Give the backbone structure.
Amino acid sequence: MLLFYPLPVLYLIKPGATCNLGTINPELYKTDELEGDLDQYPDDHIGRVWLQLEYHSDAEKLLVTLIKAKNLPSRLIGSINSCDPYVRLYLMPDERRYLQTKIRKKTCNPRFDETFGFQITARELEDRALKLTFYDVDRDKKHVVIGHVLFLLKELYPWEGKRMLRRDLEREVSLSPRELGQVELSLCYNENLERLTVTVGDTKQLKVDKELRQEKNEFQSRIALLQQTKVSKTKKTAVVKGSDSPSFNESFHFKVALDALDTTAINKVVGRVQLGSFMFARGRALEHWNLMLSKKRQNVKQWHTLT
């Protein structure tokens, strides 16, 4: 199945499948409950964080409360509080947009007590990860990365009430992308009609999880128009059966004002590709979007790799 979301982002999805964000060591991200402060730390430790997660399905909002951190490294040997930390929160795989705490001064054991909200549907929770990146602002005002924590949201949902978690920071975390096939997309914007047209064309070698390979191949393209951070409209193609390289050849029209294009995008979940302005996309996806803007009322067609 192909999913397009309101940022030009494309999702390819097989009915009943979930999106694999990449290879990750599950032992590092177990969802055990918070049990006290536990001031025992392993060698080469770079910090521990306490937080609370809560999902409101009626409002489609994930609330993240960053409570505190302990044992962050001091930048000066012999000093116990030479650290001015703050935290950025990301909903992976999108690393372009983030929320950020206030800077805490001169402490390796900061207390944050800040709550942040992410607008996200229950379906999207299965395909996203929460990433916390800790920074230290040094004497030269340089922002130095301390470490990261990564939570696969599909392992935390559904919840009953609030979920308290504790994790140790890692120097490196990764959601290694897999290439999951390719899709041909065409974009066209008519400024006179204020109309964005997205055409889903051919695909190549869509990959599905092993447990789904024995099923009859059925794919569908779903496009969600994202404006700001909310889905404003969704449309979908007919289901195409019997091929790992289905051809959809369907067009979708969205009413989008010219001055709203910078905050509009499209989304993917056998795979994903996101098309949009610099606010949402980079590389080939951004180039395709900009080419559409430079050639208004023309169909601009390109192939994109799904990950």
